[in-house]
Amino acid sequence: MLYRKNHIDIISMGCSKNLVDSERLLRRLDSKGYTTAHDPETPEGEYVVVNTCGFINDAKEESIQLILELEELKKEGRIRHLIVMGCLSQRYMDELKAEIPGVDSWYGKFDWKDFIDKLPERSGAEKSPLEWERSLTTPPHSAYMKISEGCDRMCAFCAIPLITGRHKSRPIEEILEETRQLVSEGVKEFNVIAQDLSSYGLDLYGEHRLAEVIDRMADIPGVEWIRLHYAYPADFPMEILEVMARRENVCNYLDIALQHISDKVLANMRRHITKDETIALLEEIRRRVPGIRIRTTLMTGFPGEDEGAFEELKEFVRTQRFDRMGAFAYSEEDDTYAARHLKDCIPEEEKQRRLDEIMEMQEEISLDLNSRLVGETVRVLIERFEGDRAIGRTQWDSPEVDPEIFVTIPEDLELNTGDFIDVKVTGAYPFELEGEPVISHS
């Protein structure tokens, strides 16, 4: 027997929303008396569970490749049971079952609790946890807070609604209860996530309630930073801007995916917003929250993006000077509106050329914006240590996707992960900063 008896490995793929599901799964496994590991270097559990991603082709291929590799480990006796769950299996369950017979059980995105129910309890089992309880895989001072699931927007290119279904908000009181529990465990930073933050509350309360839930989270003692991810530009809840401007522990940071700026492309994408409306929204956000950092995501090569539309996109990037920007080349996704009704006629190499061009523009913009911070003092949350340097993030930097700041630490300064420290910025690069602690001698 090469595998570890009563041990379960969980491997998470894809986004932070998937990660929250894995953390809830881990908590339930722990409560049944199993030992667990998240993203182990060498899977060796009696059970190995893969939480898959099915968002774009690259992610799907990565998930399938991992499953095939684990199937080989199972044949070698290094794992006993192979379980697959998540977005990919939610969408392609029947096809995957036929193609990968070595998987013991398949679950989707929402029925994985059936796997827990079928597992026998081991010695040391505890009372079943609450619906939202989880075992954090992030650093103990930081957590993702998923406040809703699903999406009603039905953008032409996006498969998410086909996987997750309609938008479903969590009750405010449940979110606040989870926040208090996580604070009691040492969490200071909350990265609030959803497929569509802008729609929070509409299904439960008949009105936008994002501003209320964030304001009430900010009231909880011990909540140091709240950061907002994945707002939608159409029907944006403007009330949240007042909360961001007023509350010191709500970061001046907004992740809002814009995708494009050409009216023709936006219409093809079914984004329900125009170029002028997008620019007006960005102006209002910046006016009402001075100093805000905006992160966005753009797409190149969508059907209808001729040279004129791409030039519009370049000019948009050049003039808006986003603080943080990601981008990707369009890939056709099965059963989406675009796949059914729009011809994907732009060559892949041209999509990639356009992507490279706007990302090169963004690199220059990022370097210029970061250089303007040299000499400034910023508050930094310490994440980890490398030699004599601490590595952390400012309020404008989300984990995994945004720049870090490398801080040279003097020998006589005691510092731990999760500490906040004032840092003077001494050096700037496109996607990271350098600094030194500001130490008071009074």
Structure description:
This protein is α/β, with parallel strands linked by helices and about 450 residues long. About 35% of the residues lie in helices and about 25% in strands. It contains 14 helices and 18 strands. It has a 6-stranded parallel beta sheet with strand order 6-9-10-11-12-13. The protein has a 5-stranded parallel beta sheet with strand order 2-1-3-4-5, sandwiched between helices. A 5-stranded mixed β-barrel has the order 14-15-16-18-17. Helix 8 (about 210-220) packs parallel to helix 9 (about 240-245) and helix 12 (about 305-320) runs parallel beside helix 14 (about 350-370). The radius of gyration is 23 Å and the shape is globular.
Task: Reconstruct the topology from this structure.
Blueprint: E1 4-12, H1 16-31, E2 35-38, E3 45-52, H2 57-75, E4 81-86, H3 87-99, E5 105-106, H4 113-118, E6 142-146, E7 148-149, H5 160-164, E8 168-169, H6 172-184, E9 189-193, H7 202-205, H8 210-218, E10 225-231, H9 239-246, E11 250-256, H10 263-269, H11 275-288, E12 293-300, H12 307-320, E13 324-329, H13 337-341, H14 348-371, E14 377-386, E15 389-393, E16 404-408, E17 420-429, E18 432-437
Parallel strand pairs: 1-2, 1-3, 3-4, 4-5, 6-9, 9-10, 10-11, 11-12, 12-13, 16-18
Antiparallel strand pairs: 7-8, 14-15, 14-17, 15-16, 17-18
